[in-house]
Design goal:
The chain contains seven helices and ten strands. The protein has 247 residues and is of the alpha+beta class.
């Protein structure tokens, strides 16, 4: 940004502070403003966005709450260098970026009626019993992902899948021992605003969207054996796709 840059238009839908925060967030996450660089001054931002100092202060507060910038009144504001954890699409289970402190907490294991999308994936009527394991992934001390993993109730009853403890070797090892090795999985990923429950559980810093990852895992014969719903805090993750080279 410099004195010759034109003013940034108002999108007429979001508050001006959220527009400003959105533009700066994009520059920081893309690396165009690095950890060793200062953000534009308050004077420059007020001119370019045609706003007052208070609007700039509120925009910067949004980015501070997300852990993207640091700085105080009278001092320069710089990016913290914090990056979203990278998860690789198609990897099972999905790892997070090395160097991040990742801890998974088991919240609950129960039998419940199958939600509509889960029932459709299993090919059963909605509301039919399924076993669900609910977990929370914590990254660097902050809740980052809510996970619900479903199994046909008749398969899970009387097995480790229905027990309220961590699975030794993870669900792939348990399912293999039960005679249902995982052969492949299909993910659907969408982005939407958080529900009230998701906002509170993930402690989202403002109006951050969530990534919803819906995974169906299949065993021999193409039978769906495990369905997982993952709700990821939008500011915490990036998803990496690796495509084969063209012929």
């Amino acid at each position: 940004m410099n004195g010759r840059d034109p003013e940034i238009p108002d999108d007429r839908h979001r508050s001006r502070q959220r527009q400003l925060a959105g533009d700066l967030r994009a520059l920081i996450l893309a690396g165009d403003i690095g950890p060793d660089q200062r953000l534009p001054s308050t004077a420059e931002l007020t001119r370019r966005y045609a706003v007052n100092n208070q609007t700039v202060t509120r925009a910067l507060a949004i980015l501070k709450a997300e852990g993207l910038i640091t700085g105080h009144r009278g001092r320069s504001v710089v990016p913290t260098g914090r990056r979203p954890a990278v998860v690789r699409a198609g990897h099972y289970p999905a790892p997070v970026t090395p160097g991040r402190d990742a801890v998974t907490h088991l919240v609950d294991v129960s039998e419940t009626g199958a939600p509509a999308q889960v029932a459709q994936a299993f090919g059963i009527p909605a509301g039919e019993p399924v076993t669900v394991r609910h977990q929370v992934l914590v990254l660097d001390g902050e809740p980052a992902e809510l996970v619900w993993t479903y199994y046909p109730a008749d398969l899970a009853r009387g097995t480790e899948l229905a027990e309220s403890r961590r699975l030794r070797g993870g669900s792939p090892a348990v399912l293999t021992a039960l005679g249902h090795p995982l052969r492949h999985a299909v993910d659907q990923v969408s982005v939407r605003p958080a529900t009230v429950a998701e906002f509170l559980a993930l402690q989202l810093p403002g109006d951050i969207p969530v990534l919803r990852q819906f995974r169906i895992a299949y065993t021999d014969g193409g039978r769906p054996i495990e369905v997982t719903v993952m709700i990821k805090a939008g500011q915490q993750f990036e998803i990496r796709y690796e495509l084969p080279a063209p012929d």
